[in-house]
Design goal:
Number of domains: 3
Helix content: 40-55%
Radius of gyration: 47 Å
Order of helices and strands: HHHEHHEHEHEHHHHHHEEH
Low-confidence stretches: 377-421
Distance between the termini: 168 Å
Number of helices: 14
Number of strands: 6
Strand content: 5-15%
Strand order of the largest sheet: 1-2
Length: 421
């Protein structure tokens, strides 16, 4: 009961407190309620949350910077470069992306290596960069530069080998070309190289060029031999190359090749010696190709394995590397009965079926030479070199006459000299 009174007294006290009389103005004002003190969430104060918020902020900032850099880099990647004029630059083998950028920077092709590196990485082309010799156009953009290297558009060089050179002369030319690399193990077999124009890149080895020339010769020889005339007095592709090398050395005029070939073929059919001056020279100097002076009468009579004045039939091997045209001329010679040809004084030849006709052609040549010598001043008395002028003759004509002065093959620059006929 006392507890009841106590609770009742407390309630009455609170009621009396709320009923405390206030002034009318105070009574109209709202009661103020005290707010509990604010507290931050324990989750918001967690370290992982703080770190996460920082990372997100940094990521957003980095994305903004990266986007700005990407836009700026793309503009510079496509902008014209600093190169004032076309330039050839060699990128060595084994160069990495930084090495390549240094080379391009040093040669003035680019002026922002970091944009070059970034562009290569963005294009995922790092493993596609190729060594080689490249020509970059003036003001080439970084995109153009990268595309040129990735696609391997290297500078193509050309090597032209004229018809009628010996293998030793061809090797000398290859050794003189400083764009090629490497040594040559041995001089290729005579007649095994095809004269032609070959494209190659800087750094290609000389042995590789020789292999290409040999493969080309084998391919062309097979094509020509498959279409050769069936009544030829030669039985193998190798013999065709031998006879074609004689034709190559005897004339430099394309329209005469089939007629010169016909003269040799007709003589072989009649078992006449070929009597070709270039075989004398090859028997004396071999692969050097040139005698450097007129042939002497004693050398015509000097036996060598190649001297067709002294041997029957073909020499034992080619005396030069014939071109396709000479191979085709021998495979399908002109249909004539001609057995002789002599220089006509105009750079060509006069052909004859009989020895008497041939002698008249030689006499006309002598008269032309005599007239030319009279018209020349004493200082010019030495006859100048003229285009090829060979003269195949009968094996045993009575008292053969001496024939034209020194000849010069415009293809090989090593053609014959003065000989007895």
């Amino acid at each position: 009961m006392s507890d009841g009174l106590t609770n009742g007294g407390m309630a009455a006290g609170k009621a009396n407190k709320h009923l405390t009389p206030r002034s009318p103005r105070t009574a109209l004002e709202p009661d103020t309620v005290e707010m509990p003190p604010s507290r931050r969430s324990k989750r918001a104060r967690h370290p992982f949350v703080v770190i996460g918020n920082a990372i997100i902020t940094l990521f957003i900032l980095a994305a903004v910077v990266a986007g700005f850099a990407l836009v700026l880099g793309k503009q510079r990647f496509d902008a014209p470069g600093p190169l004032a004029e076309d330039r050839v630059v060699n990128i060595p083998r084994g160069s990495g992306i930084r090495d390549i950028s240094d080379v391009l920077m040093r040669d003035g092709v680019i002026d922002q290596p970091w944009v070059f590196v970034g562009g290569v990485l963005a294009l995922k082309a790092r493993d596609d960069l190729k060594a080689g010799e490249y020509q970059f156009k003036a003001h080439a953009s970084l995109r153009d530069v990268v595309a040129t290297i990735v696609e391997g558009r290297v500078v193509a060089h050309q090597l032209t080998i004229p018809e009628g050179l010996t293998s030793e002369q061809i090797v000398a030319r290859l050794l003189d070309d400083d764009i090629l690399s490497g040594n040559i193990k041995e001089i290729p077999r005579e007649g095994s190289l095809l004269p032609d124009t070959y494209n190659f890149n800087r750094g290609m080895t000389r042995e590789q060029i020789i292999q290409r020339m040999q493969q080309a010769q084998q391919r062309v020889l097979k094509e020509v031999w498959d279409r050769h005339s069936p009544d030829l007095p030669i039985k193998t592709p190798e013999q065709l190359v031998v006879l074609a090398s004689l034709v190559e050395k005897e004339t430099g005029k394309p329209e005469e090749r089939t007629r010169v070939a016909a003269v040799f073929v007709n003589r072989l059919k009649q078992r006449m010696r070929l009597q070709s001056d270039p075989t004398i020279i090859y028997g004396l100097v071999g692969g050097k190709g040139t005698l450097g002076r007129p042939i002497m009468k004693s050398e015509i009579e000097q036996p060598t394995p190649y001297n067709t004045y002294q041997i029957d039939g073909l020499p034992p091997g080619p005396i030069a590397n014939p071109g396709r045209a000479s191979l085709e001329a021998v495979a399908n010679p002109a249909r004539t009965r001609e057995l002789y040809f002599a220089a006509d004084g105009t750079g060509g030849h006069a052909f004859a079926e009989t020895y008497e006709q041939h002698q008249r052609n030689v006499a006309r040549l002598r008269a032309m030479e005599a007239g030319d010598q009279k018209d020349q001043a004493p200082a010019d008395a030495q006859p100048a070199a003229s285009p090829p002028a060979a003269a195949a003759t009968a094996p045993a004509p009575p008292q053969p006459q001496r024939r034209a002065p020194a000849r010069h093959n415009q293809n090989t620059q090593n053609q014959n000299t003065q000989t007895a006929r």
